[in-house]
Specification:
By secondary structure, the protein is an alpha/beta fold. The protein has 13 helices and seven strands. A seven-stranded mixed sheet has the order 1-4-3-2-6-5-7, with no helix packed on it.
Length: 357
């Protein structure tokens, strides 16, 4: 008898544990289906839509974003009015009944473009609230539908981009293209490695003071020379600022500035007079008669030179007649010999004879 009591007690404990597990399971099911209070009193409300936008029974119902219930049933109405083609019955927690004004509107919403859709009741401003089994006016869902339709090209573009990116990655992995060769070409790697080695050698040479750049970096005497040059240049600039020397006076002497200003004014007057045709130079620049005379004179001079070059006239004969040239040369030679004889024996040419008759 005691053994049978123990068996009965064990069976009772197993039954209690099974019932508790079942209760927990039921609670979890209610929580996962979106019901915020599985044991609270509910009421039904409905709304009409032109389309269900792929919502399912058990979808969440929110009041201004707050969870208040779930979609209980979705069915076709068979109405000729396309705006009332689908009827959705909402099961809402009764404690929110007083929070839904009669002029509230319900519409589809989503957490994002690709997120889970739900019904969202937008509270109105009426003082009268809805009653169980009342209709809640459906808000125009064109914006939501347009948002869904606009997401399709975006998804297509993303798919196309991902396809191209995948193709590029495959090309890179196969070592094709410039970037692929940079990643996988062993010869290019060796060249880059060689360049880095050479650069390291140059850096080491600079650090050790070798070469011209190394001397510039580490030679103390060169640094001193450069510093001395900079100091002298600074002294020169300081002297210029103080008006020392010719350049300094050019920068600082107001009298020289006034003279330069006066000279520029005079030069401006001179140019003005030239443009106005005043003076000899001005007339030469602006007088058409003087210009014509100069041109005529140049033409006559050009004609004279042509005659000379062609052997006309005395000067022309001297220029082109070889016989006349040779005669002049012979005459000058004889005259030169005569002058030599005269200087050597002047008495020969200056003797005077008197004859008496």
């Amino acid at each position: 008898m005691a053994a049978s009591n123990k068996v009965a007690w064990a069976q009772l404990k197993v039954g209690v544990l099974a019932a508790a597990a079942l209760a927990i399971l039921v609670l979890l099911v209610f929580l996962m289906t979106g019901a915020n209070n599985p044991f609270g009193e509910k009421f039904d409300a409905y709304a009409f839509f032109p389309d269900s936008v792929a919502m399912t029974e058990g979808s969440v119902v929110r009041l201004n974003g707050i969870l208040v219930g779930k979609v209980k049933r979705i069915e076709l109405t068979g109405s000729a009015d396309t705006r009332r083609a689908v009827r959705m019955t909402m099961e809402i927690d009764r404690r929110f009944l007083s929070s839904i004004p009669k002029d509230s509107e319900v519409a589809f919403s989503a957490e994002n473009v690709l997120g889970t859709k739900y019904l969202n009741i937008q509270r109105g401003q009426s003082h009268e609230t809805i009653r169980p089994n009342d209709e809640i006016k459906a808000r125009d869902d064109k914006d939501f539908m347009e948002m869904l339709r606009s997401a399709y090209p975006l998804l297509d573009s993303m798919q196309s981009i991902l396809t191209r990116v995948d193709h590029m990655v495959a090309q890179l992995e196969s070592g094709k293209g410039s970037i692929g060769k940079l990643l996988y070409d062993q010869e290019l790697y060796n060249k880059v490695n060689s360049i880095l080695d050479d650069f390291q050698k140059v850096t080491h040479a600079l650090a050790s003071g070798q070469g011209t750049l190394g001397a510039l970096l580490y030679d103390e005497s060169l640094y001193s020379e450069i510093r001395g040059t900079v100091k002298r240049l600074d002294d020169v600039i300081s002297g210029l600022q103080q008006g020392e020397g010719t350049a300094g006076r050019l920068l600082k002497d107001p009298a020289l500035y006034d003279e330069l200003k006066q000279s520029s004014s005079q030069l401006r007057v001179l140019v003005t007079n030239l443009n106005a045709g005043k003076g000899t130079a001005g007339k030469l620049l602006t007088d058409d008669t003087a210009h014509a005379r100069i041109i005529a004179t140049l033409d006559r001079l050009n004609g004279t030179l042509d005659k000379v070059n062609s052997g006309q006239g005395t000067i022309g004969q001297l220029m082109v007649n070889p016989a006349l040239y040779e005669s002049l040369v012979g005459t000058s030679t004889e005259l030169n010999g005569l002058m030599k004889d005269f200087r050597a024996n002047p008495k020969k040419f200056l003797s005077i004879k008197f004859h008496l008759f």
